[in-house]
Amino acid sequence: MRARPTDVLPTLRSCPTLSRIPLDGLRLLAEMAEEERYEAGEVIVARGETAERMGVVARGRLDVHVADSGAPVRILTPGELFGEYGMFSGGIRTATVRAGEESVVYSFAYDRFKAFLITFPQASFVLLESAVARLRSCEARLRELGA
Questions:
Q1: 92 and 46 in contact (C-beta within 8 Å)?
Q2: Fold assignment, 5-144
Q3: What is the pLDDT of residues 16-38, one digit of tens each?
Q4: Which sequence spans correspond to the domains of the chain?
Q5: Distance between CA atoms of 81 and 131, rounded to whole angstroms?
Q6: What is the pLDDT of residues 132-146, one digit of tens each?
Q7: How far is CA 20 from the centre of its chain?
Q8: What Rg, from alpha-carbon coordinates, does the chain have?
Q9: What span, in angstroms and rounded, lies between the C-alpha atoms of 54 and 111?
Q10: pTM for the model
Q11: Which residues fall within 8 angstroms of residue 112, CB to CB, at 6 or more apart?
C-alpha cells in the first residue's frame, strides 16, 4: 500500500545511508515509498529470486540469511537499508530476509529508484560508498576467520 510521505520521511532521515541525500531528494523518495507489513517469521525476500525492490526498515527487526539454515549473518533494525545490491548486481537476490518480529518496511521499486538516481545522481555515490563499506566489513570478518 502507498505509504504516507510524512510517515516515511523520519525513517529515511534515520537511515545512515539515505540520510546523506539532500532533503528535497528524501522528500521525493518518501513520495515513492510503499508500506509493507510482515509477521514474525515471514519471508520478505528469498535468495535466488528476482529482485525488483529495495527497502528500509521502519519498525521491527529483520534477519538476513545467506544459507538455508543457521544464524542470521546480519540483523536489520529501524533505519537500515536492504535489497539495494539486487539493483546493481543483475537483479538476483543474494540473501533471504525474514521478519524476526512483527515489522514494517518502506519499499521502493527499482525502476522508480533508478529514475530517482538520474534526478539525484549524488545518491548513487552514497549507495556505492555504503556497499563498499559493507564489503570491506565482510572481508575483515573473513580475515578474522582465517579464510
A1: no
A2: Jelly Rolls (2.60.120)
A3: 888 888 899 999 999 999 999 99
A4: 5-144
A5: 11
A6: 887 787 788 778 877
A7: 15
A8: 15
A9: 11
A10: 0.86
A11: 32
